[in-house]
Amino acid sequence: MIDLKGKRALVTGGSRGIGAAIALALAENGADVAITYQYSAEKALAVAKSVEKTGRRAVAIQADSADPEAITRAVSEAVSALGGLDVLVNSAAIGHVGTIADLDVKQYQAVMDINVRGPVLFAKAVIPHLAEGGRIITVGSALGERVPFPGITTYAMSKAALTSFTRGLSRELGPRGITVNLVQPGATDTDSNPANSAGSDFQRSLTSLGRYGEPREVANAVVFLASPASSVITGAILTADAGAIA
């Protein structure tokens, strides 16, 4: 077990899927956790209750990751509820399927606002609250590094941007002893990409392990990067994709 006792974490998009698994894993290892959600209040409260069952503090905060004012408010509420912040996990994201030729500009902007601008603005709001040993961890995608089929260009480019964000921010915050890292999941069994979907066999065929990942497996990578065990790791990309881009 990794010891995160006394740590306070904010997980964006923590009401379901990978974000929910991250929130619970952080709590099981000793951290108090705030999560943000946009629509799923019931699911967010269920995650908060699961966190509280581990003996840790929890708070669910409604916030649209495409809204700069909501981001600032969410960080303020998390700091107030937990007494500060030590870890930010940027997990909130939306998907997009479609070709550039048929691109809807509003959909494109929504993807960029949530998947790229959201992590940047959450980091901006959290940085003043982080002390030495602080952590910023962003959940990207292996599709940001390799695009193995058509129709996912917009989503892939939004995730590719997170690599430069991670590396650049690590240079900015390194002198303060704060690390910044990126976790890149591959196909992961969630509501948005279930392992029994129509295209799941093809996605499995791209991997070395021949299977989907589980949300908890991605969460384990985040917990490691949030812990003192990763103290020398920053500006790094940890890919958890069952070998899809090997």
UniProtKB/TrEMBL annotation:
It comes from the Bacteria. InterPro entries: KR_dom, NAD(P)-bd_dom_sf, Sc_DH/Rdtase_CS, SDR_fam. Residues 7-218 form the Ketoreductase domain. GO terms for molecular function: oxidoreductase activity. Keywords: Oxidoreductase. Belongs to the short-chain dehydrogenases/reductases (SDR) family. This is SDR family oxidoreductase. It comes from Terriglobus albidus.
